[in-house]
Design goal:
By secondary structure, this protein is mainly alpha-helical. The protein has one domain. The chain is built from seven helices and no strands. It is globular, with a radius of gyration of 20 Å.
């Protein structure tokens, strides 16, 4: 039984590393909360969180670094997550979503917008934006969609009480995404910041649930092996 026990201990270590990296990523991804403690000049109700890192904004480097650290931590979590995730395609799909999410965060942080449109009419009417601004816009759209896709993949394979969490998060993410789309079609971006931050907050809940899930599975596995006769 010793080889099996060693394998169980190895998986526990990998699972612990995964949770540690996800914890760092989640904490860094909450960097946008600092806007409530720093003078950013932006309204949390009417501005996109990405505007916090726009050129010319105070504390832009703080928000860029937080997002970059989050992306790097989530990307580093992918290999160990592949080791502990279920081998069925739904589990692998979830890991793939985490990987894409990490890459989008890195792109989002590396290519900031030229200006903050919520506080600048000139920025909203500006046509000659930089490549960085365009990349940031595209990654922002993809991230908003990613926030919907992420919980949807967990709904496919989480069971019991666990499944209720991604279902609720998916509902919040979809409603927030739909609200942003509707506001865009109406040509009014008022309260778009509220919807965008609801997406970020819901994602934090999902990430914390994911880490709790990994720790619970780890505990259940240890308990089973402790009951095995030596």
């Amino acid at each position: 039984m010793l080889p099996v026990l060693r394998r169980s201990a190895t998986l526990a270590a990998v699972r612990g590393l995964t949770v540690a990296l996800l914890s760092v990523g989640t904490a860094a991804h909450l960097g946008w909360v600092l806007e409530y403690f720093l003078d950013t000049g932006l309204s949390p109700l009417h501005s996109f969180p990405g505007e916090l890192s726009a050129d010319g904004q105070p504390h832009r480097e703080v928000f860029r670094m937080a997002e970059w650290v989050a992306g790097a931590a989530f990307l580093l979590a992918v290999p160990p997550l592949l080791r502990v995730a279920p081998v069925h395609w739904q589990g692998r799909l979830t890991v793939a979503v985490v990987c894409v999410f990490a890459l989008l965060l890195l792109l989002h942080a590396t290519f900031p917008p030229d200006c903050a449109p919520s506080v600048s009419q000139a920025c909203r009417n500006r046509d000659n934006v930089s490549v960085s601004h365009r990349i940031h816009h595209v990654t922002s759209v993809l991230l908003a969609l990613q926030y919907v896709v992420g919980p949807a993949t967990l709904v496919l394979w989480w069971r019991g009480g666990w499944q209720a969490i991604p279902v609720l998060v998916l509902a919040v993410e979809f409603l927030a995404w739909a609200a942003m789309v509707a506001l865009g079609l109406l040509g009014s971006w008022r309260f778009v910041g509220l919807a965008a931050r609801a997406q970020l907050a819901a994602l934090t809940v999902l990430l914390c649930a994911g880490m709790a899930y990994l720790l619970t599975i780890d505990r259940d596995v240890r308990d089973r092996w402790e009951d095995v006769p030596r």
